[in-house]
C-alpha cells in the first residue's frame, strides 16, 4: 500500500505506466498489442507482452473532447456513424488520424474477444487488414442460458491454448505455467479488492459516487494482472472503509436519493451528466459496468467460464438478476438508463429490463438518449428534463413512504 | 390572490394565471420559445386577460425547456409533473396523459390528485412530434390546422414507413410525385405520429381516462388516429396547449392554499 498517495493517484499512475511501458517496448522493437477490454489479459501478461486497450484509449480521447473529431475522421474513411463510437475513434487512430488526447503506440498484433460485443470482431478485423498485422480471436458465443455449459468452457479454453501458441510465435517468448499461476493470482487479488471497493456503494450514505468507479475502471481493464493494481484497489477499499468511519464521501453533495446508472457514461459530457444529479442530491450508488469486470476464478476452466460472462454476452435473465441484486443490495430509489447509441446490444434489451425493474423493484425507471463517445448523440436539455422527472418521481415515492 | 404558471416550450410560450380557487383568470400563448420574445408576449396577454398587473402575482412557477432561461421567480418544475397536474385540473379522472409537443412526446401515468406515477418519453429523434407536422405543413404548403380536413377525405390507406422526420418528409414528397393523393398522405402522416406515440404509450400501459395535451392535441386527425391505435377514447380540452402552464400555476398555488381547487 502506498503510504503517502491517495489510491486514486496511485491508480492513475498505474494506468499511465501501462501505456508508458508500451511505448518503451515499441522503442526496443518488441511487438505491442491492442486488446479488447475483456480478452483474457492473463495470457499476454504471462508472456510479458506490452498491450494497449483501445476502449480505454477511446474513452480518454472522448473525455478530452476529441471524440467527435475522430468519429468524423472515421466516417470520412467510409465507416457508418451507426457503429460504435469507440470503434470509430480506434479505426481513425489506427489510420493515423492526428490525436494528441491519448496517443498510444500503433499495434503489431491484435487480441480480440467478442464477449464485449460483436462489433468488436469487425472493428479488429478492419484494423488487422488496414495495418497488415495478425489478429488473435477468442470467440465467446452468446450465453442463452444462465449457466455456462461445460462444452462451451472447453471451446473457450481451447481458444486460449491456441492464442498462447500464436502469441509465442509472434513474440518469440516461451509460455511459463508457473508465471501464469502468479499472474492469475494477481488478477484474482485485483478482482477481489475491486469488488470489495465497489461494494462500499451499499453503505448509506455512500462513501463514494458510482462515477468514481467508472474512472477507476481503467485499472481493472488495463492492469488487472499486476500486483501493484491489486495493492492499489486494496488501498482504495481501505480508504472507503475509513470514509465510512469518519462520515466522509467523495460525493460532496446531499444524498437525497440513491440511483443506479445503467450503461456506459457519456464521456464527452461528464459535467452535463453529473450536474442535474448533484443539483438534486441524486448519488449514483449502483453501476453494473464496473463490477462486471471483477471476477475471481480458480484454475483455467473457471477462468474460461468467467470470461464467458460480460454485460452483452449473457441472457436477459442473467442481466436482470445482476442489476436487481445490485439495486436491492445498494438500496436504490430509482434507475437512470443510458440508451447508448454506440452500444446497440446493450441498449436493445433495456426496454424489457425497464419493464421488469418497474414490476419487480417498484422504483421509477427513466431513460435518456446519449452516446459513450460521440457528443452529437446527446442533448443536454432533454437529459435534464428526464433526470428532473426521475427526481420528481423519487421525491413523490419517498413522500408517500414517509406518510405511511 | 393570483399565481402564474409559465410554460416556455421549444416552439411556443404559454402563460396561465389562476386565482386562489384555481379558476383561470387569464391566459396567453405566443409563438417563440426560449430565447425569443414569446414568453413576454404570452405573459402580457395573460395579464391583460386577467386585468391585473404583474406585481399582483403572488407566486410564479416556470416549466418547459426554457424554464431555466427566464426569470425563475419562485421555482421551476419539469413539464412532466406540470402536464400531469394540468391534465388532472382539466379532467379530474385522468390516468394517462399523452403530451405531444414541439420536440417531445411523452406518456404520463397519473395517480389521484394529478400525482405523476411514471412516464416514458421519445428518444432524441423528433419523429412523431409537433416538429414533424410542422415540416410536413411547410413542405406541402398546408397549414397544420387545415390538415385534418384533407385527411378526412382520404380514400386510400398508404403508409409512411420511415421513422425519421426528415426522411419521412422526402418519402411523402416522393409518394406525391408518384401520384399519391394529398388527402391520403395527410391521413398517413397522422397515423405515423399516432403510431409512434402509441408505441411509447404501450410501454407503460394505457389507463382510462386518457387525455391528450400539448400543441398536437389541437389536431383532430392525430387524436382520432391515436384513438384507433390505442382503442380508447381520448379527451382533449380546448385548453390542451395550456396544460403545462396550468399545471405550473396549480403547483404555484399549492403552498398558498394547500388545496389544488377545481379549475373552471
- What is the mean pLDDT of chain A? 95
**Gap between N and C termini of chain B:** 16 Å
Q: So, CATH architecture of the domain at 8-12 and 16-176 in chain A?
A: 3-Layer(aba) Sandwich
CATH topology of the largest domain in chain B: Nucleotidyltransferase, domain 5
Report strand % of chain B. 15-25%
What share of the residues of chain B lie within helices? Answer: 40-55%
Portion of residues in beta strands of chain A equals 5-15%
Q: Helix amount of chain A, in percent?
A: 55-70%
Which overall shape of chain B is indicated by the principal axes computed on the Cα atoms?
globular
Report the largest inter-chain contact: A-B, 21 and 18 residues
Assign the CATH class of the largest domain in chain B: Alpha Beta
What are its keywords?
heterodimer, A: 404 residues, alpha/beta, Rossmann fold, four-stranded parallel beta sheet, 16 helices, B: 264 residues, Nucleotidyltransferase, domain 5, 2 domains, five-stranded mixed beta sheet, 8 helices, 40% helix, disordered C terminus
Plain-language structure description:
- The complex is a heterodimer of chains A (404) and B (264).
- The radius of gyration of chain A is 21 Å and the shape is globular.
- Chain A is an alpha/beta fold.
- In chain A, helix 1 runs antiparallel to helix 10 (227-246) and helix 7 (150-171) packs across helix 12.
- Chain A is built from 16 helices and 8 strands.
- The longest helix of chain A is centred in the C-terminal third of the chain and has 24 residues, at 380-403.
- Chain B contains 8 helices and 9 strands.
- In chain B, 51% of the residues are buried.
- The model of chain B is unreliable at 259-264 (pLDDT under 50).
- Chain B starts with a strand and ends in a 7-residue tail after the last helix.
- In chain B, helix 4 packs across helix 6.
- Chain B has 2 domains: 2-89 and 241-257, ATPase, nucleotide binding domain (Nucleotidyltransferase, domain 5); 94-236, 2-Layer Sandwich (Nucleotidyltransferase, domain 5).
- Chains A and B meet through helix 15, strand 8 and helix 16 of A and helix 2 and strand 7 of B.
